[in-house]
From TrEMBL, chain A:
Keyword Transmembrane (UniProt): yes
Organism phylogeny: Bacteria, Pseudomonadati, Pseudomonadota, Gammaproteobacteria, Lysobacterales
Name of the featured protein: Putative zinc-finger domain-containing protein
Annotated source species: Fulvimonas yonginensis
InterPro entries: Anti_sigma_zinc_sf, Znf_put
Keywords for the protein's UniProt record, in alphabetical order: Membrane, Transmembrane, Transmembrane helix
Membrane-spanning residues: 101-122
Lineage: superkingdom: Bacteria
Pfam families: zf-HC2
Length: 248, 164
C-alpha cells in the first residue's frame, strides 16, 4: 500500500482527518509497526508540549496584568489585583473581610456584563437580574438550578448543572453550563433572595454531554468553587435531598 | 448599552490563563511572555470597538498576541533569537516530567524553531486549536498551517528520546 505522508499522519494524530481516511489508518496500524511508531512519536510531541506549558494555566496571574482588567468604574486597590481575578477576589475576601463588599461589587460587575452580553444570544429571556447589588439567576437558569439534577442529566436541556456542594458559608452552590454555540459556565449559590450568580464565563464547548469533572470548568469558575468548597461535592442522594429541602 | 471596552475587559479575565500559556510558548521566558501579555491586553482594550460581540473573543485576542509577538521580534532584530536555548529551561516546570531531560530539550527546540513554525505549534499543539482556527488567526490557508506544523513536528520529534 502507499506510504502515508507526514501531513496525513499528523492530521490523523490531531483528529483532523476525515473518518474514512482515519479508519484506513486505524486498520493499517494493526499490522504496520513502523506506522504505529510514527503515530506514537507524533502524539508524544503534543503530549510533551502540553505537559511543559499547561502548568502555566495554574500559575497566579501577575498583579500588573490583572490590574489592567479591573472594571474602570472600580478603583484599583492595592492587594486586590492579585492572583486571577476571581481567585484574587475570593482570596482577598477570605483574608480581609472588610474588602468583601468591594470585591463582591467588582465580581458582580463582570457577571452583569457577561449576562448582558447574553441578551439576544439566548432566546427565551434574561438569565440574570439585578437585585440589591446581587446578580440573581432568572428564567431558564433559575429553573434549572431549582429543578435539574446532575444525576439525571438531560442532554437536550439548554442549561446543565454540574457540581453541587455546601459552601464554606453554609449556602448550597451549584455549577452550571449554558449550552449554546458559545457556551458559558458559572457558579451560583443559594440564598434568601434566590440563586446568586458569582461567576459566569465563556466555556469550552462540551463534547456531547455535560462533563461534571472539575477539569471542564473555566479557570475562574474553578477558582470560585475552590474558594468555597468545604468537604465533598454532593452525591446523587445528597443532591436529591437538597432539592427536596429547597436548597437550604 | 454596554461599553465595548467593558465587555472586552470582562471577557479577557477568564482568557488570561490561556493567553499566558500561549505567550509562554511564543516568547519562551516567563518575564518576556508576561510583557507580551501586557501589550496584548492594552491593545485589546484600546481596540475593543473593533471586536464584534458575536465573534469568539479568544481568536481575536490570540491574533493580537501573535501580531504583537511578531512586532516584538522585528523590534529586536530579525536574526536574533528572543533568548538563548539554555534559557529555555525556565519554560519547563521542573519535576512535572517523567523525562525531564527530554522536555527540556523539547522546550529548547521549540524556542529554536523559526517564528513561522513556532506560532503554528503554539496555536495547535499548545493552545489546542483546530487547523482551521489556527489558519484564521494567522490569516493563512489551512494547507500552509498543515505543512508548517508537519515540518515543525518533525524537528521537535528529533528532540524526544528514543523511548518517547
Amino acid at each position: 500500500m502507499n506510504p502515508i505522508d507526514d501531513d496525513t499522519l499528523q492530521a490523523y494524530v490531531d483528529g483532523e482527518l476525515d473518518p474514512v481516511s482515519a479508519a484506513r489508518i486505524d486498520a493499517a496500524l494493526a499490522h504496520d509497526p513502523l506506522l504505529a511508531d510514527r503515530v506514537r512519536r507524533a502524539r508524544a510531541v503534543r503530549a510533551e508540549l502540553r505537559a511543559a506549558f499547561d502548568p502555566v494555566l495554574e500559575e497566579p496571574i501577575p498583579a500588573r496584568l490583572s490590574a489592567l482588567l479591573q472594571p474602570s468604574s472600580q478603583p484599583v486597590r492595592r492587594g486586590m489585583a492579585r492572583g486571577s481575578a476571581a481567585a484574587g477576589h475570593a482570596a482577598a475576601a477570605r483574608r480581609r473581610p472588610r474588602r468583601r463588599l468591594v470585591a463582591g461589587i467588582a465580581v458582580a460587575a463582570s457577571v452583569v456584563l457577561v449576562g448582558m452580553a447574553l441578551r439576544g444570544w439566548w432566546a427565551g429571556g434574561d438569565l440574570v437580574r439585578m437585585q440589591d447589588g446581587q446578580v440573581l439567576a432568572a428564567g431558564d437558569l433559575q429553573h434549572a438550578l431549582d429543578e435539574a439534577l446532575a444525576s439525571e442529566p438531560d442532554p437536550h436541556a439548554r442549561v446543565g448543572v454540574g457540581l453541587s456542594f455546601r459552601g464554606t458559608d453554609g449556602h448550597i452552590c451549584r455549577t452550571f453550563v449554558l449550552r449554546a454555540r458559545a457556551a458559558r459556565a458559572g457558579l451560583a449559590c443559594h440564598g434568601d433572595a434566590g440563586w446568586s450568580v458569582l461567576v459566569l464565563s465563556p466555556a469550552a464547548r462540551e463534547d456531547g454531554e455535560l462533563r461534571p469533572a472539575a477539569s471542564a470548568l473555566p479557570a475562574d469558575v474553578q477558582a470560585a468553587v475552590d474558594a468555597r468548597l468545604r468537604g465533598d461535592v454532593f452525591d446523587a442522594g445528597q443532591e436529591r435531598a437538597a432539592r427536596a429541602a429547597g436548597w437550604r | 448599552m454596554v461599553d465595548s471596552t467593558d465587555a472586552v475587559r470582562a471577557g479577557l479575565i477568564p482568557l488570561l490563563p490561556r493567553l499566558r500559556r500561549l505567550a509562554r510558548a511564543l516568547a519562551g521566558q516567563a518575564a518576556d511572555a508576561d510583557d507580551l501579555v501586557q501589550t496584548v491586553l492594552e491593545r485589546a482594550l484600546a481596540r475593543a470597538a473593533q471586536w464584534r460581540p458575536d465573534a469568539p473573543l479568544d481568536k481575536w485576542v490570540f491574533a493580537i498576541a501573535r501580531n504583537a509577538w511578531r512586532d516584538e521580534l522585528r523590534a529586536r532584530g530579525r536574526s536574533q533569537n528572543l533568548f538563548v536555548p539554555e534559557a529555555a529551561a525556565a519554560v519547563v516546570d521542573e519535576g512535572a516530567s517523567a523525562r525531564p531531560a527530554d522536555r527540556l530539550a523539547l522546550a529548547a527546540a521549540l524556542a529554536a524553531l523559526p517564528p513561522d513554525h513556532r506560532e503554528v505549534v503554539a496555536l495547535v499543539l499548545v493552545e489546542g486549536m483546530s487547523y482551521g482556527e489556527a489558519a484564521e488567526v494567522l490569516e493563512l490557508p489551512v494547507g500552509t498551517v498543515t505543512s508548517r506544523l508537519a515540518r515543525a513536528r518533525i524537528a521537535l520529534q528529533a528532540h524526544l528520546g528514543k523511548d518517547a
